[in-house]
Automatic annotation (TrEMBL):
Its EC number is 3.4.17.-. Residues 215-308 form the Peptidase M20 dimerisation domain. The Mn(2+) ion enhances activity. It comes from Thermomicrobium roseum (strain ATCC 27502 / DSM 5159 / P-2). Its cofactor is Mn(2+). Mn(2+) binds at C130, H132, E166, H192, H391. The lineage of its organism: Bacteria, Pseudomonadati, Thermomicrobiota, Thermomicrobia, Thermomicrobiales. GO terms for molecular function: carboxypeptidase activity; metal ion binding; N-acetyldiaminopimelate deacetylase activity. GO terms for biological process: diaminopimelate biosynthetic process. This is Thermostable carboxypeptidase 1.
Amino acid sequence: MVWDELIRVTPELDAWLRETRRYLHMHPELSLQETNTARLVAGHLRELDIEHRTGLGGDGRPLFMSAEALRAAGIQPGPTTGGNGVLALIRGERGPGRTVLLRADMDALPIDEQNEVPYRSTRPGVMHACGHDAHTTILLGVAELLNSLRDRFAGTVKLMFQPAEEGPGGAAAMIADGILEDPPVDAAFALHVDSTHRAGEVAVSPGPATAAADTFRIVVRGVGGHAAKPETTVDPIVVAAQIVVALQTLVSRETSPLESAVVTVGTFHAGTATNIIPDHAVLEGTVRTYSPAVRDHIERRIAELASGIARAMRAEAETVYLRGYPAMYNDPSLTALARQVATELLGSERVYDREPLMAGEDFAFVAQHVPVCMISLGVANPERGIVYPPHHPRFDLDEDALAVGVRLLTAIALRYLGAV
């Protein structure tokens, strides 16, 4: 097969991929703090003599969240530029042509790792629990292969090493720094690890891919007092509990069963002692939707429900709603290309349909400008106990998937640029 001859992950490269992923896993960095990771990326690009820019992106929240909502939420965002993003350019030697962007995110999560492995995180409370260590490693491997194949294609490949995916919207900040221009990007692809499929398998489908991801904060204010004299108080815990229950009706009774929506209250904070009724309670949660109309409706109704219930129970409720990442859709033509390449590389029996996710993904900001396709890369190995999903403290991946990801993204880029 042409791919076997053209795209080879040598034993030396495979060993380097595993070693690099383990290093990144042992040294995770939270969003907007990925200085060491960016330094490693830029250093490897220099070794390969690949043209690249550093200091890109930053905190993207001011670009898609209102200043008023950020102030109300008590969020002081950082600069939108001068961050840890890195953009590499590999120019084909067969002349001008189309430009394709390949993206990897670099940040970790505030999670204490529970895996007992030699490459366990060395930073308490910080862990690569979403596979971004693998994404970064894979794209570095792609850089090495595509750089060696410049004589095979026309056009340009842009490699987007992105900070701050886990909340601050680093993709939006890198876009604001002009990464989609000079030359203009025509299409973009990305991989994301998937623990529902084995290493060596992938999943991809056109249409809905990831949901819009918003957050809300409700502060219920009552009247505090002694727990033995509740009649002299307005108990914010009871009021907030009623709000939690009522919020569930926004999906079950106000959203069509044919639409997708999630409303989850993730935190409930109130009180300091068992014999005190506090004067306030705080609820925080997330909303996930695909339809813009459903998104608008739920945003409006959360505030209405909270204030209405609170008022009826002699309390007050203030709601802050922060719009996060938009929904993302896989372009049909790019999906068909990716699926065909994956079938040629892996065999049709290892290529699955990708179900839409209610998770959020800031690659969606790229999708607002150019057609995109995100592919799920299987990383599970049940025999070794590697089955836990992303954002779990025991998440891990079968490193055999690294070479698969490198070959797949390299082949997709070459096919899109017309080299094969």
